């Protein structure tokens, strides 16, 4: 430090290294913040109203029921939701930025009717073209349209039924290079941008002073690295990994991170010493094969679900019934309380980690019969069971939705968002973290990222692997319905992500 009576300016002039460091820090942080702000894409949604239809007079604890009719039909347990969706980022959002349409969910309630009360003209025109909008179901899908900065959409939705899962209103999409967040701001205080920039300015001043006075540690290592990395494997975890990779690419402009599926086994087969810095593989559960150099990195707990076509009225099967269905002992839905229709089983192919998880958790280790229906329509061998196989999660969900007698399995996050399918309870239990922790729901796995060795500490492979455990990545995983390995696990037992 400078001697007593010296000014800060005098001390800086006597310590040129400190002044250069302070200027470098200020310029670096300012440039990073400018890049982050200018390239940010963000959609926020706000629930202005979510209320059942009824009357609750003062002093009366229970709501008086009111009958509501829509299109000449009575709506049981009616409620209204008013949701505003808005581009609050600093960049326009184009149609191809939305890899999946904006989808609203209402905690299990069914959509009876909907009206767009505020939107751009082109969105209103798109909706007006579709006489069947909104389609029946427990989701409301909005047409893909571009959103300029500050563009907003307000939707009033008439719903039927109780809230069976939380959150009561949720909005999902895959936004390339951005995110969707719930707007919970209240009151008329300073705007979020002002608070963020003001706080960052204070942080910058404080960091500069710390450096000038020679206190505190140096700047932390960046999570960015240049290079190309290709991640293959589990199709169940492909979509959320692509979303994490898109955020990483946005932050790190020199990084190329590509994500494709192909199944767990196909992904693991691509790991090799010659490509150790360029390849990684997603595996549903521990790798079924590999050599001693395969290095596992736990990412998240992934719940799976059994799904049926929404034309099948069955909503709960026991483990014994599921085994009988998938092993060909039950071939007609009337054998489990459904209609007199032949069962179509849509399964994953032999390279799938999801299939291995289903065999272990539901089938008790038994192997499914061989495929006998390449077109998922008729059995080529005349057997009582009609069974086809798909090489991706999306393929299973599409086929189950397409056929009114189909059953299959997929990761719960994708199943919840798929149109035309319904998730089954197993032994009367649905997939929650608590049910998985206490053993009541067993159809889940730990998702692993495998690498060949650990890679260079400063290389893209190591940096991205560590990024998967960052707060940003874990926030994306939670939003998409997964349980990051760094999060607490209910109960007193061992966390499933910990090594045995």
From TrEMBL:
Coiled coil: none
Transmembrane portions of the chain: 20-38, 195-215
SUPFAM superfamilies documented for this protein: Periplasmic binding protein-like II (SSF53850)
This protein's UniProt keywords: Membrane, Signal, Transmembrane, Transmembrane helix
Gene3D superfamilies assigned: Periplasmic binding protein-like II
Superkingdom of the source species: Bacteria
All residue ranges annotated as the PBP domain in the record: 220-471
Entry-linked InterPro entries: PBP_domain, Phosphate_ABC_transporter
PANTHER family associated with the record: PERIPLASMIC PHOSPHATE BINDING COMPONENT OF PHOSPHATE ABC TRANSPORTER, PHOSPHATE-BINDING PROTEIN PSTS
Protein name: Substrate-binding domain-containing protein
Origin species: Saccharothrix xinjiangensis
């Amino acid at each position: 430090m400078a001697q007593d009576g010296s000014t800060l300016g005098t001390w800086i002039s006597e310590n040129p290294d400190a002044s250069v460091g302070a200027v470098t820090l200020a310029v670096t942080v300012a440039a990073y913040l400018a890049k982050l702000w200018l390239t940010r894409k963000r959609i926020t949604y706000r629930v202005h109203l979510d209320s059942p239809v009824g009357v609750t007079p003062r002093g009366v604890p229970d709501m008086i029921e009111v009958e509501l009719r829509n299109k000449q039909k009575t709506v049981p347990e009616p409620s209204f939701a008013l949701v505003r969706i808005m581009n609050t980022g600093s960049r326009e959002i184009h149609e191809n930025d939305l890899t999946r349409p904006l989808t609203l969910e209402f905690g299990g309630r069914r959509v009876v009717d909907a009206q767009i009360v505020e939107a751009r003209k082109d969105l209103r025109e798109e909706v007006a073209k579709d006489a069947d909008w909104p389609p029946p179901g427990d989701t409301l899908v909005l047409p893909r349209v571009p959103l300029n900065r500050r563009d907003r959409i307000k939707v009033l939705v008439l719903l039927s039924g109780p809230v069976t899962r939380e959150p009561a209103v949720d909005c999902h999409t895959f936004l390339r290079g951005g995110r969707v967040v719930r707007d919970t701001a209240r009151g008329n205080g300073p705007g979020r941008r002002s608070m963020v920039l003001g706080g960052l300015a204070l942080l910058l001043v404080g960091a500069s002073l710390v450096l000038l006075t020679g206190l505190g540690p140096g700047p932390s290592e960046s999570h960015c690295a240049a290079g190309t990395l290709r991640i293959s494997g589990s199709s169940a975890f492909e979509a959320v990994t692509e979303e994490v990779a898109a955020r990483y690419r946005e932050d790190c402009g020199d990084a190329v991170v590509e994500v494709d599926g192909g199944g767990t086994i196909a992904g693991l087969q691509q790991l090799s010493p010659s490509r150790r810095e360029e390849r990684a593989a997603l595996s549903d559960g521990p790798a079924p094969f590999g050599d001693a150099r395969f290095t596992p990195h736990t990412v998240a707990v992934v719940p799976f679900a059994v799904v049926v076509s929404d034309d099948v009225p069955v909503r709960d099967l026991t483990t014994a019934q599921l085994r009988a269905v998938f092993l060909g002992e039950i071939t007609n839905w009337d054998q489990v309380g459904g209609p007199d229709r032949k069962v179509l089983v849509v399964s994953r192919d032999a390279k799938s980690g999801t299939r291995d998880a289903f065999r272990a958790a539901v089938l008790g280790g038994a192997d499914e019969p061989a495929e006998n229906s390449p077109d998922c329509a008729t059995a080529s061998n005349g057997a009582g069971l009609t069974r086809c196989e798909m090489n991706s999660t999306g393929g299973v969900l599409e086929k189950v939705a397409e056929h009114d007698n189909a059953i299959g399995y997929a990761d719960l996050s994708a199943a919840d968002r798929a149109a035309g399918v319904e998730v089954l309870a197993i032994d009367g239990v649905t997939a929650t973290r608590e049910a998985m922790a206490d053993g009541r729901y067993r159809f889940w796995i730990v998702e692993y990222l495998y690498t060949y060795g650990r890679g260079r500490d400063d290389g893209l492979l190591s940096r991205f692997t560590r990024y998967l455990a960052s707060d940003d990545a874990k926030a994306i995983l939670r939003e998409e319905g997964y349980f990051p390995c760094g999060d607490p696990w209910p109960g007193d037992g061992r966390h499933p992500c910990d090594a045995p």
